[in-house]
User: Which sequence fits this backbone?
């Protein structure tokens, strides 16, 4: 009997140890609705994971990042967002009994999240990083894409990634002159504004959407309204991270830098690039001229030097070229093709170009053609 009781006691203690400790923060949207951010229950093997819930809508976001740097000159970041049939208790029917490729709406949501996250990683951080966002539970009255940015940032705050600051995204609608944060689908049908704003607590980073011919002042007011809500969401993420326990930022091998070489290449390239950019030549002529400048700079170094830091020379040349073109536009109001900043490229169109199809057209704007 003692052994049995002892076994029962040990089993009970083991079960208690298995119960996860859950950390939760609640965001009040101001009209009776709430958004909760929770961690500690699901996907604990990820570097960071959260469940974001509003009403019956639940999003799971997990983030992972390799500890080894890839030999590339960009951040290999993957943002994936999926709304699966199972979130509403259904499964795909018809011939294919499985989920199809991402819809246009899902792809656009991925891009909206990526656009705000990517600039906040260090420029020399090249580890493969994945942000996976999945709709686990569907609610007809909640639009989940408006919470995807919040979920991604909250999960990253719980990780050890080198990341500048918390961000979030919010949708703004307007009905009868009143702004609404994260409107329902029904409200959005009545709204004359549908905008997605991405921001940190300090600054707005991304604005996307459509509206029915509003003024600049009204648009600015909508952005400010969203930013105030985003500040609250960022603060909630910080509180969650503090309660959960902040991790030390991981160490990684930074890119090789040589400030003296950078200045030397900049001085050799800047004025020449500026002069060619100002000439307003065609795309092919301009590209050939820029290529000649780059080859001249490379020719000024010995073969041994190029073997040692040839990649840096190319990198610093691109930086000097970008700076010269940017300064030309900002200082003199000129574009690469000679246009001023208030001019548009010449446009021409032609219809019924193809004889054997139902309808065809050519659209040409500047040197771009479709």
Assistant:
């Amino acid at each position: 009997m003692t052994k049995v009781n002892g076994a029962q006691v040990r089993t009970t203690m083991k079960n208690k140890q298995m119960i996860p400790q859950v950390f939760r923060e609640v965001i009040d949207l101001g009209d009776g609705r709430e958004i909760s951010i929770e961690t500690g229950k699901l996907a604990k093997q990820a570097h960071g994971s959260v469940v974001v819930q509003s009403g019956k809508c639940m999003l799971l976001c997990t983030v992972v990042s390799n500890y080894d740097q890839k030999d590339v000159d960009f951040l290999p970041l993957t943002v994936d967002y999926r709304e699966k049939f199972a979130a509403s208790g259904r499964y795909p029917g018809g011939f294919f009994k499985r989920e199809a490729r991402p819809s246009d709406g899902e792809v656009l949501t991925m891009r909206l999240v990526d656009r705000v996250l990517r600039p906040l990683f260090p420029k020399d951080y090249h580890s493969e990083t994945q942000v996976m966002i999945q709709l686990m539970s569907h609610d007809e009255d909640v639009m989940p894409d408006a919470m995807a940015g919040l979920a991604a940032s909250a999960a990253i705050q719980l990780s050890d990634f080198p990341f500048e600051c918390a961000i979030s995204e919010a949708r703004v609608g307007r009905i009868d002159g009143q702004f609404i944060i994260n409107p329902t689908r029904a409200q959005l049908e009545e709204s004359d504004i549908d905008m997605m704003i991405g921001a940190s607590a300090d600054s707005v980073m991304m604005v996307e959407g459509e509206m029915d011919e509003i003024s600049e002042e009204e648009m600015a007011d909508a952005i400010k309204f969203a930013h105030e809500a985003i500040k609250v969401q960022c603060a909630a993420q910080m509180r969650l991270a503090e309660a959960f326990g902040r991790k030390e930022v991981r160490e990684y091998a930074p890119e090789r830098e040589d400030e003296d070489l950078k200045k030397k290449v900049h001085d050799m390239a800047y004025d020449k690039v500026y002069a060619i950019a100002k000439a307003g030549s065609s795309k092919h002529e301009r590209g050939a001229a820029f290529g000649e400048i780059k080859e001249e700079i490379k020719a000024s170094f010995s073969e041994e030097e190029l073997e040692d830091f040839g990649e840096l020379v190319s990198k610093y040349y691109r930086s000097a070229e970008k700076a010269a073109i940017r300064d030309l536009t900002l200082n003199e109001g000129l574009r690469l093709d000679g246009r001023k900043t208030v001019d548009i490229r010449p446009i021409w169109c032609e219809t019924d170009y193809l004889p054997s199809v139902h309808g065809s057209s050519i659209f040409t704007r500047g040197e771009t053609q479709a």
Observations:
- Residues 69 and 127 are 4 Å apart (CA to CA).
- The first helix runs from residue 2 to 18.
